[in-house]
Amino acid sequence: MLVKKSLHSLTGKLIITIGTLMIAGSLIFWYFLFRYQENALIEGSVKYGYSFVEYVRKSTRYGMLAYQKLIIQQTIEAIGSEEGVLNIRIFNRQGRITYSSNKKDIGTILDKTSPVCTGCHTEDEHPKDTKTWSIKKEKDYRVLNIVQPIYNEPACYTSTCHFHPKDQKVLGLVEANLSLALLDKSIKQQGIAMIIYVLVFLFVISVVLCTILWKFVSTPVSLLAQGMERVAAGDLDYQVTINTRDEMGDLAKAFNAMTLDLKKAKDELVEWGHTLEKKVMEKTEAMQKAQAQLIHSEKLASLGRMAAGVAHEINSPLTGIVTFGHLLRKKFPEGSEDREDIDVIIDQANRCSNIIKGLLGFARASAAEKTLINVNDALSSSLNIVRNKADFFNIKLIINFDESLPPVKADPSQLQQVFLNMIMNAADAFDGKGTITITSRTIEDEGKEFVEIEFSDTGSGIREEDIEKLFEPFFTTKPVGKGTGLGLAVSHGIIKEHGGSIFVKSKLGEGSSFFIRLPVYREYKS
Amino acid sequence: MTKGKVLVIDDEDIVRTSCSRALTPEGYEVKMARNGFDGLRMIEEEEFDLVLTDLKMPDMDGIEVLGKIKEEWPGIEVIIITGYQTVDTAVKAIKLGAFDYIEKPFTPDALVSAVRNAFEQKKR
Ligand SMILES: Nc1ncnc2c1ncn2[C@@H]1O[C@H](COP(=O)(O)OP(=O)(O)OP(=O)(O)O)[C@@H](O)[C@H]1O
Ligand SMILES: [Mg+2]
């Protein structure tokens, strides 16, 4: 994973801020530590300086008491030759150098303003008469200057040798200049070491800080940023994997929850769009179907009207054929061939008559006289007509009427005609034996109430390719003279005229079911 | 002596002759008119016992003819000849006073028996 880094990033800013604070803090800290240590070292040096001067004083004490000048001079020279000792000088009260590790100095009188004197004698002030120290800078090292007064003591003024009066408090000074080169060197070394420590410390801290920031801030932040980019680009399945228990983890959780919500919302939208599309498609399809059906039934209706017109015209010539046929028939003796021929003419004319009766059904469909009726009653009267027919002796009739059927507005004789046709068709569908089940019920379809009548038979069934032709006029599979193919066409016309529908379900060899739906009449429609 | 006088009103020649040919051998005297006006004029001129009238005719239809006859000559029986299409109207016609209706195409026997029934009714 590639994570961009720059000084403008959060990590960069944090590192710069914390780094600056660390550098400043540690510089101040180390500076004071350094100063403290230096002071401590100098204090040590001063202590050492004091004891050194005390040592010089004690070493020369005997020489002083005995007034052995040579011994004093030699002792001082010996001590002065020690390493780190620059010089040792002894002054008398008047400021004259009486002894010195540097012989050339002996006899020189120091001015009252020389640093040795000003250590005690400041103007207007009573001399302090105590030991003092100071540090001055030489070319490349510092020099510790110690001055200690030599006090008068009984041994001095009781000594026989010379002249110190008893009332004198300070007899002279011992001054020593000690080199601090060693000290400076060690301080310098310590400084360097400290700088190295500081640098190492800063480096380590920076590395640790960077790592921590990288791990806990920078990486999660850029992961989140990346996630947002992905989500913005439309990848709503993307989930940020930050499992820490800190604010970053919370942020990632919140982010993931948000993405999930977004996804859900988007899915819902898409789903909604899909269902809308589907619904539109379904509705369009239904509308197209309805339109096709409308066109189809309109076609059937106009075909019917035309057929009815033709039929009516044909009725009169048929009357002539039938009448004159019968008249002619009477002129031939019973059983004669001519008479039989004329019988054929009459039979065929009757067949034409039947066809015409069927065709005239179309005209009837549009001249319906509708009243409120119970469909069960119309069914019963249709059944009464067929029940006693010889064809129905081997047919089992099962009746399932819904006794609480709501009324429909319909022409009863037309409904009877339809029902009769259904029953006759069912009876024709088997060779003698079979079962016809007639059921009436109330159903609801698309919020509308219908009375549904089902005619089921255990007959031959209907071939798939025939089903769509069933309702066309003159479609029949029955032998010539037996069926006209108008029954279903007329039934269809009648049911349509009543605002209902008729459809069929069939399985070849198992039987068929015809369904008729008529809208329920409701006086107070809300 | 004839069994009675029958007037056939129909716009179709073949129906008129059919009726005539079926009824004449049975002993009825049959006259024919090609429309309602002619028929009514003939009834005014001579007496008829029975009128057979087609229901669907141009200008004046059978129901109108029936109404006129029942209004002016209530003694004349009327039988309506009808196509299947007009059965409902035929039923209405019976309510208006027609004796019977007969559907086209009819057999001579059916016509004769309908006419016979009408005359029997008249005798009573
Ligand atoms: N219950 C059924 N079982 C099997 N086939 C049927 C059934 N009902 C109708 N059919 C088929 O539909 C065709 C058309 O029926 P329709 O009632 O329109 O005419 P038809 O019965 O042949 O003649 P018509 O009713 O005029 O006497 C029938 O010939 C038959 O093939
Ligand atoms: Mg049928």
List the helices and strands and how they pair.
The complex is a heterodimer of chains A (526) and B (124).
Chain A lengths: L9 H56 L3 H12 L4 E8 L4 E4 L14 H4 L13 E6 L4 E10 L2 H5 L11 E10 L1 H52 L14 H84 L6 H29 L5 E3 L1 H13 L7 E6 L7 E3 L1 H17 L5 E12 L2 E10 L6 H4 L19 H11 L3 E7 L3 E9 L7
Parallel strand pairs in A: 7-9
Antiparallel strand pairs in A: 1-2, 1-5, 3-4, 4-5, 6-8, 9-10, 10-12, 11-12
Helix pairs in contact in A: 1-2, 1-5, 5-6, 6-7, 6-11, 7-11, 8-9, 9-11
Chain B lengths: L3 E6 L3 H11 L4 E6 L2 H10 L4 E5 L7 H11 L4 E6 L4 H9 L4 E4 L4 H16 L1
Parallel strand pairs in B: 1-2, 1-3, 3-4, 4-5
Helix pairs in contact in B: 1-5, 2-3
The complex binds adenosine-5'-triphosphate and magnesium ion.
Overview of this structure, please?
The complex is a heterodimer of chains A (526) and B (124). Chain A has 526 residues and is an alpha+beta fold. Among the domains of chain A are: 10-186, Beta-Lactamase, CATH 3.30.450.20; 367-526, Histidine kinase-like ATPase, C-terminal domain (Heat Shock Protein 90, 2-Layer Sandwich). In chain A, 55% of the residues lie in helices and 17% in strands. In chain A, strand 9 and strand 10 form a beta hairpin. In chain A, helix 5 packs parallel to helix 6. Chain B is of the alpha/beta class and 124 residues long. Chain B has one domain (4-123): Response regulator (Rossmann fold). Helices cover 46% and strands 22% of the residues of chain B. In chain B, strands 2-1-3-4-5 form a 5-stranded parallel β-sheet, with helices on both faces. In chain B, helix 1 crosses helix 5 (108-123) and helix 2 runs parallel beside helix 3. The two termini of chain B are 20 Å apart. The site of magnesium ion has 5 residues of chain A, from helix 9.
Poorly predicted residue ranges of chain B? none
Q: Which bin fits the share of residues in helices of chain A?
A: 40-55%
For this structure, the CATH topology of the domain at 10-186 in chain A is Beta-Lactamase
Number of helices of chain B: 5
Q: What small-molecule ligands were found?
A: adenosine-5'-triphosphate, magnesium ion
- Assembly level: heterodimer
> What CATH architecture of the domain at 10-186 in chain A do you see?
2-Layer Sandwich
Distance N to C terminus of chain A: 67 Å
Report on the biggest sheet of chain A. Answer: 5 strands, antiparallel
Number of helical regions of chain A = 11
Instruction: Enumerate the spans of chain A where pLDDT stays under 50 for 5 or more consecutive residues.
Output: none
Q: Give a count of the beta strands of chain A, DSSP E runs of length 2 or more.
A: 12
Structural class of chain A: alpha+beta
Give the strand line-up of the largest sheet of chain B: 2-1-3-4-5
What is the name of the CATH superfamily of the domain at 10-186 in chain A?
Answer: PAS domain
Q: Between the first and last Cα atoms of chain B, what is the distance in angstroms?
A: 20 Å
**SS-based class of chain B:** alpha/beta
Using the coordinates shown, work out and report the CATH topology of chain B: Rossmann fold
Please tell me the CATH architecture of chain B by its name.
Answer: 3-Layer(aba) Sandwich
